[in-house]
Design goal:
This protein has 449 residues and is of the alpha+beta class. It is 32% helix and 20% strand. The chain is built from 13 helices and 18 strands. A hairpin with a 6-residue loop joins strand 1 and strand 2. The mean pLDDT is 96. Keywords: Hydrolase, Metal-binding, Protease.
């Protein structure tokens, strides 16, 4: 257990650092190399206790560090990221996105919960342990990347090239939010991801809709036909072969999910939808945790003027479960589209390069046991829920393949904190709770009580 003599840094002290961190606009999708490097260097300075340093990749740099002063103890690799999502519509923000603002019991700003705050509290804890006890209970390595929000395209090459240096008994991810704020939770799985574009082209250029209307195919009409064919009226994906590798939802798993306290109406109200909809035959939570999805994320072509556009494009993404193979999913969608009768146009399906299989850690894994005990220490009156991340963390399957290590999700963000959206926020209480839980986790993993 956590010794009573450990004095955690006050949350206000951590928040002061977090304000500096948030002010660095490290949007990996659009920031300059100089901005990303400045952010990495700021973070490396907070890792001075572990020889913190910035190292090159073929993209934005990573921040590395290691404290290896516990001979004979296990070694963990702490993973997180310093990049953030774009702000979106600035008019939808109630406060400036790159200026952290305290708002009652939360702080707001881009990156406060995904993933700058959850990473920073780990570094603050490590510094406190070293200052007061002269060491950590186990060996700790750090790998903090700058491209997670764009699919970690250059992380695989870096990790494989430095696998020996990064070797660890367990990866602990400071990324990957708890499911909801009403109880502590651990995620035992995350969905995979593959994205693709469907492009439909017709005439060589946009055409006047009066002079040419009714004589040539309209790519937007054709694209609508293609997209409508991807699902049946019951919400099930209608692409042959899409569900290859999807495990059957057993009666035992259904019973486990059914035992989770979940209110469909509260969920509907929280997202502001007029009604819930999804694949028939499954509950809302079963669909969210156990079923694959194929979503249309955006459509472009033409505009509010009188033309027949020559081109229309849809961007799609699929969240994968079980043993679905991302390459096979793209091939199945391409074959489905090729078999459609859509005259007068040409159709191309292009898969994005970043493809991630689904990930799972068994509920009885020793890391889950240790993490559950750590959370019970911090939240003694609450049950620890084993949940599923419906999103994707690209690094998990990479670490398993390249390092032979499982990843434990141990983030003190929660999924309702406007990740990727305007007005992203972090509950201030999670700073102290997170530091206490990480301390308890490290102690348990080290075998000390």
């Amino acid at each position: 257990m956590r010794s009573p003599d450990l004095q955690l840094p006050p949350a206000e002290e951590v928040l002061a650092e977090l304000a500096e961190y948030v002010a660095l606009p490290s949007v990996s999708r659009s920031a300059s190399a100089e901005t990303m490097r400045a952010t990495a260097e700021w973070l490396a300075a907070r890792l001075a206790f572990a020889d913190g340093r910035v190292e090159e990749t073929d993209g934005f740099p990573v921040v590395r560090g290691e404290w290896l002063g516990a001979p004979g103890a296990p070694t963990v690799l702490v993973y997180g990221h310093y990049d953030v999502q774009p702000t979106g519509d600035l008019g939808e923000w109630s406060t400036p996105p790159f200026e952290m603002v305290r708002d009652g019991d939360v702080v707001r700003g881009r990156g406060v919960t995904d993933d700058k705050g959850p990473v920073l509290l780990v570094l603050a804890l490590a510094r406190a342990l070293l200052a007061q006890r002269g060491g950590l209970p186990l060996n700790v390595k750090f790998l903090l990347e700058g491209e997670e929000e764009i699919g970690s395209p250059h992380l695989p090459g870096y990790v494989r090239a430095h696998a020996e240096e990064l070797a660890a008994d367990l990866v602990i991810s400071a990324d990957g939010a708890m499911w909801r704020p009403t109880e502590p939770s651990l995620s035992i799985a995350s969905k995979g991801l593959v994205a693709l574009d469907i492009e439909v082209t017709g005439a060589a250029a946009d055409l006047h809709s009066g002079r040419y209307g009714g004589t040539v195919a309209n790519p937007l009409h054709a694209l609508a036909t293609v997209l409508a064919s991807l699902h049946g009226p019951d919400g099930r994906v209608a692409v042959a072969g899409f569900d290859h590798g999807v495990p059957e939802l057993t009666s035992e798993r259904r019973a486990e999910i059914g035992a989770v306290d979940f209110d469909d109406e509260a969920y509907r109200a929280s997202v502001g939808a007029p009604a819930l909809f999804g694949e028939a035959g499954y509950s809302t939570l079963e669909r969210l945790w156990e079923r694959p999805t194929l979503e249309v994320n955006g459509i472009s072509g033409g505009g509010k003027y009188t033309v027949i556009p020559h081109r229309a494009v849809a961007h799609l993404s699929c969240r994968l479960v079980g043993r679905q193979d991302p390459d096979r999913v793209v091939a199945a969608i391409a074959a489905h589209v090729a078999a459609l009768d859509v005259p007068g146009v040409e159709i191309e399906v292009r898969g994005d390069p970043g493809r991630v299989p689904a990930y799972r850690i068994e509920p009885d894994h020793p890391a889950i046991t240790a993490a559950t005990e750590a959370l019970r220490e911090v939240y003694p009156d609450q049950e620890v829920l084993l949940a599923v991340i419906a999103g994707t963390l690209p690094a998990t399957t990479l670490f398993e393949e390249a390092l032979g290590a499982k990843t434990l999700f141990f983030s003190f963000a929660t999924a309702d904190e406007q990740h990727h959206a305007p007005n992203e926020f972090l509950r201030v209480r999670r700073i102290d709770e997170g530091m206490r839980a990480w301390s308890a986790l490290w102690t348990r993993l080290a075998g000390a009580r």
